[in-house]
Amino acid sequence: MAADVFGKVAVMFGGDSAEREVSLSSGTAVLNALLRQGVNAVAFDPAAQPLTDLLTQQIDRVLIMLHGRGGEDGSMQGALQLLNVPYTGSRVLGSALAMDKIHTKQVWQSLGLPTAKYEIADKRHFEAGSCGAIMDKLGNEVMVKPAREGSSIGMARVTSAKQLDIAIQNAFKYDNQVLLEEYIDGPEFTVSVIQGQALPSIRMSTPHTFYDYAAKYQDDTTEYFCPSGLSQDQEAQLAELATRAFDGISGSGWGRIDVMQDSQGQFYLLEANTVPGMTEKSLVPKAAKVAGLTFDELVMAILATSMEDEQVTVMAGA
């Protein structure tokens, strides 16, 4: 697809979420890729300028590289729709669902898709005395996750009721609702989905207690395996699970599904990401490379997802 078909593109990154620094790295890499491909692209930080500047600058479409709240939760998607500016990735519903780990799990459960056992801690009526019973119910090893944060911010892995209480109180700093999830002891995988197609899975290995923020963005000790070492049948099974999970929460365009595998080989869905990282350490570019896509080709494929609604309109009127 020729670069000029996209018109003037704003790469939206930065923002004011807890993931601002990661967004700045992702957005800079993506902007540079578009410029290398001859796209008329400019940087746009919604934390520094009003959205109405998109209209005064005559922006034709937006490539969203905002991570976390305000960019990945449906609010920016809704604002862009009101401005009638096409954008990349999932629409309002898919973005909002994927950002909320609790509602994502509830949707997946309703569809019969495999997820780990869980409980919900609500700041309004949480009682520390309930931690022992929660540990017993979830198998005495629990992952604590703020419901609406990404990049493993506020997460912890605990093995006692006392640790659980401390971790929940820390997670409450980021969100009023916290997901408490049975810890699955086994390898972690991620599957990127672009335009309805699953890319090769990646298996992550880290010496950290789990794949936390430092393991993702700061340390060089994390290992990535792609191909991931699964059999051909398992790879196909995981690809189907990931695409079903992404479709199930109304994800569209592009995204990533994170999965754990237990000792019996059973996969369990963890969460969905509708604006995954695009830094040099990020997972989607790693999978795309194995699939035969360069970083620049990947970015152009992501940009093309901004035309999905336009293509539907053309087809409907044909």
**What's the level 1 CATH class of the largest domain?**
Alpha Beta
Q: If you consult CATH, what is the topology of the largest domain?
A: D-amino Acid Aminotransferase, Chain A, domain 1
Identify the CATH architecture of the largest domain: 2-Layer Sandwich
Proportion of residues in helical segments: 25-40%
By secondary-structure content and strand pairing, the structural class works out as alpha+beta
Major β-sheet annotation: 6 strands, antiparallel
Average predicted local confidence, pLDDT: 90
CATH superfamily membership of the largest domain, which one?
ATP-grasp fold, B domain
pLDDT under 50 segments (min length 5)? 311-318
When the domains are counted, the total is 3
Q: What is the string of helix and strand elements?
A: EHEHEHHHEHEEHEEEEHEHEEHHH
Binding site for Mg(2+) 1: 258, 271
Subcellular location: Cytoplasm
Active site: 19, 151, 282
Keywords: ATP-binding, Cell shape, Cell wall biogenesis/degradation, Cytoplasm, Ligase, Magnesium, Manganese, Metal-binding, Nucleotide-binding, Peptidoglycan synthesis
